[in-house]
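User: Quick sanity check before I run a bigger batch. Here is a single chain. Can you write out its predicted 3D structure?
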Amino acid sequence: MKWLRRIGITFGAIILLFFLSLGFSTYSYSWTCIKCYDRYQVVERQFLGITLWKSKNRYSGHKDIYPSLYKEITGKACNPSFKTGGFGKSFGGLLGGGHGDGMTAEGMVFSERKATVKSILDLYQAFRNRELAIQSLEYVDQLIPSDLEVTEFYQNPEIYSGNKVKLYYYGHALKLVEREEEWRELNLETQQDIETFTLLGKEAVSSKLKSKDWEIRRQAKYWVDVYKRQASAGE
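Assistant: Done. Predicted structure follows.
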């Protein structure tokens, strides 16, 4: 009977569409140059893991001046080294789906490097001191090279895990710099065997709570809270 055939075809088409829709997903991730901090958001539309469509756009509010600042410092255009970072993936069918977020292996390895390079470029924009900027970039390269492979990082944890920690503290200290002389002293401290940077000391951090710069006050508040938690844990 024709009407039964039509129902069967319609039902079959619905089932087929349902299962096909399960194969579609949207994958988005950050894509950042770990040398000049050029930064994009990439979105891929995939079917069964195959990319059908891809777009790349700068993050909203991102300063596209960073590559230019890098060129001023080094005297040459950046030979970019883009790495993925945080990502999100949405998937599902006609009756619903799901979403997951995370961090890529590259993102975990180079997160401190990316943040520190951004701080260096911001300070250069404020003070226009090429000497200090070059010193800072060289220190970053010494700890986590731009050509470091993810596999090499995990094969040598005794070296690079410690370097990530050093870069973490250096990057945070840079965020507290208000004067050119503070930047110079901080760079001198990278050449010494010290436990922590002067700018991250309790007294220095407390004094930054009075800064006119909102971002510096925010960073200082973060470290004040860190010291409070450490004191509470030690009681």
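The chain has a mean pLDDT of 85.

User: Great, the batch can go ahead then.
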